[in-house]
Amino acid sequence: MNQQQSQKVQNPETTVPKNAQMNERDFINDMLATEKYMTDAYCTAMNEASCDHLYQDVSTIFNESQDCQRNLYNLMFKNGWYSIEAADQQKMQQTYQQFSGYTNQLPYH
Q1: Within a 10 A sphere around the Cβ of 83, how many other Cβ atoms?
Q2: Where is the composition biased (Polar residues) (predicted)?
Q3: What are the residue ranges spanned by the domains of the chain?
């Protein structure tokens, strides 16, 4: 296995005070974590809703929460407070080839 150094994709970090008090980054990170938790909970609620009207209401709230989560992620990424690892092209190609034979098992061809 090739031991390549992982590459982080990240914007320059916006500095915030680092002390015992919560700063802007801390607040946004807390909101992002809460939105992630909420979208998981709404997803479960939609899966278990027996009433179509309730399902539609929760679905609307889920979509709003998902949009909020995405906006918070974008804000954190823009400010350099959230980083991701660059995808290794060779690993992506290997994974694609591994699962490309599974298309006949998928419900949609």
Answers
A1: 13
A2: 1-22
A3: 22-102
For residue 19, the Cα-to-chain-centroid distance in whole angstroms is: 28
Question: In whole angstroms, how far apart are CA 89 and each of 9, 43, 82, 85, 86?
Answer: 15, 32, 22, 12, 9
13 vs 109: which has the higher pLDDT: 13
Give the C-alpha separation, 31 to 75, whole Å.
11
Task: Give residue 50's identity as a one-letter amino acid code.
Answer: S
Handedness of CA 94, 100, 101, 102 (dihedral sign): positive
pLDDT digits (tens, 9 = 90+) for 18-69: 889 999 999 999 999 999 999 999 999 999 999 999 999 999 999 999 999 9
